Amino acid sequence: MRRYLFVDDNLEFAENLVEIAGDCGCDCEMAAGGAEAMERVSRTRFDAVVTDMRMPGMGGAALVHEIRRVDPGLPAVVLTAHAADAALEAARREGLLAVLAKPAPIDRLLTLLGAARRDGLLAVLEDDPALLDNLTEALRMRGFAAVTASTVLDTDRLGPVRPFAALADLRLPGGPDGEAVRRLTARFPGIPVVAVTAFPAAAPEGAHATFGKPFDTAALLDVVERIHSGRTSSQ
After folding, report:
1. What confidence tens digit (pLDDT) does each residue in 54-63 have?
2. Of residues 30, 3, 27, the one with CA closest to residue 16
3. Of 12, 135, 138, 148, which is least surrounded by CB within 10 A?
4. CA 72 to CA 2: how far, in whole Å?
5. In sequence order, which ranges of the chain are alpha helices (DSSP H)?
């Protein structure tokens, strides 16, 4: 049975989510704010947490940051009625499974929660916005969260997280081919890199796999799943 934590200072809204997920056979708990949520996370192993963005005291971004210290592999979904909230960028840097608008689209939320994988965070390096969106959505639907970078400098700015693997375009603005990958692997020694490139001959030595553009997304995701399965089975 999967176990979820719903965090919202609107108790009626949180109770509604708990009831809906519970009717689907899930074990659910709720918290009225960040401090209470941290108490629950510290003593219970959840499969995912869903948190409101704006709450008195500890908001959603701060909560996800604190959760990463206690349970770094816990998938997190943020709900917000304020798409332009400046704190959302800080939350995304912590590696979110998704950001959803309030009121929550229930079917999509339940689908994401059902697929969510613990320790399922990837770094995705890609400067094509459309391809980046497609990749992160495809990953999301298989339960993987992502932190993203679109330039070499962005790679240096990835949040305080530990991805289990990287999907990396070898040619990003701000440096020579492969520079973003070199910086990423220096920061995360041993991280498996799946290279995605229109120039297969430039694939870095030691890449776990290389996909030439255009590529078969399903085949790429299968490689990601095998990396994740190998990592989790060895823990």
Report:
1. 889 898 889 9
2. 30
3. 12
4. 18
5. 11-23, 34-43, 60-70, 87-92, 106-115, 129-141, 152-156, 179-187, 217-233
Q: Are 156 and 190 in contact (CB under 8 A)?
A: no
Residue 90: per-residue pLDDT: 74
Q: What is the pLDDT of residue 138?
A: 95
* Count of all residues that appear for the chain in the document: 235
Say which DSSP state 172 is in. Answer: -
Which has the closest alpha carbon to 132: 150, 145, 115? Answer: 150
Burial of 50 (0-12, 13-18, 19+ CB in 10 A): buried
The encoded tokens of residue 192 equal: 């498996």
Report residue 97 CA to chain centroid gap.
4
The gap from C-alpha 21 to its chain's centroid, in whole angstroms, comes to 21
Beta bridge partners of 195: 168, 210
Angle, vertex CA 103, rays to CA 47 and CA 95, nearest 5: 40
Give the residue-averaged pLDDT of 98-104: 87
CA 115 to chain centroid: 12
Kindly report the pTM of this predicted structure.
Answer: 0.89
Q: Which domains, ranges and CATH numbers included, belong to the chain? A: 3-115 (3.40.50.2300), 121-233 (3.40.50.2300)
Q: Are residues 66 and 34 in contact, defined by beta-carbon separation less than 8 angstroms?
A: yes
Structure-block tokens of residue 189: 């020694």
